[in-house]
Amino acid sequence: MKLIHRLAHAGLLTALFTALAGSPSLGLAQATAPAASPAKKELVQKLITLQQSGFEGLARTLAQQSVAPIGQQADAFLQTRIAPEQREALVKEVQAEFSKYGEDVGPLLRDRALKLAPGVVSPVLEEKLSEDELKQVIAALESPGFRKYMQLTNDLQRALGQKLVAETQAQVEPKLKALEQTIGKKLNAAATAAPAAGPAAAAGPGSAPKAAAAPKAAASGAKK
To answer: What span, in angstroms and rounded, lies between the C-alpha atoms of 216 and 32?
Structure first.
């Protein structure tokens, strides 16, 4: 059961798949590994099917990470270059852009992940796990109790996050505001010092990216 606990702790095999797929020695391991038996191949295929939600989750994470830098740039821009009374309207506009991005890129990454997963993951599982270990993992994933627990993880994380924010807000918020002010001063100073060689140059280093939104807008758009 230790194997099952390790895999569950690593995110239902997703982290294992990612790490092994990126290993420099993986190609050699695949080349030298004996061919898997039909029974083992069947177990691997079943495990891959059970892990479809994990592959979809990996695709969502990549979509979110792809827009995070734009969100960070936009946050600095909104705080330092846009008047407070104008921010709400601008955020709504860029939220729509991020939503369109999520609707376009999200399904693309998800579909591609599901197509790539068998070719990338099957050789790893066939070489790294025995038939008995595959059966253990499948049994755990098919367990009603385990499935119910995994369905509860989002609610558990949300509850913990809300409690954590409530307990630490008084300590964290002043530090966050101080950081915001420091970054704002640096960006404003850089913008003021920039040579006025035209509209683009006058905007300075703090100018907005072509498509930007606050981090919350980025996250909400990419998750779709």
So the answer is: 47
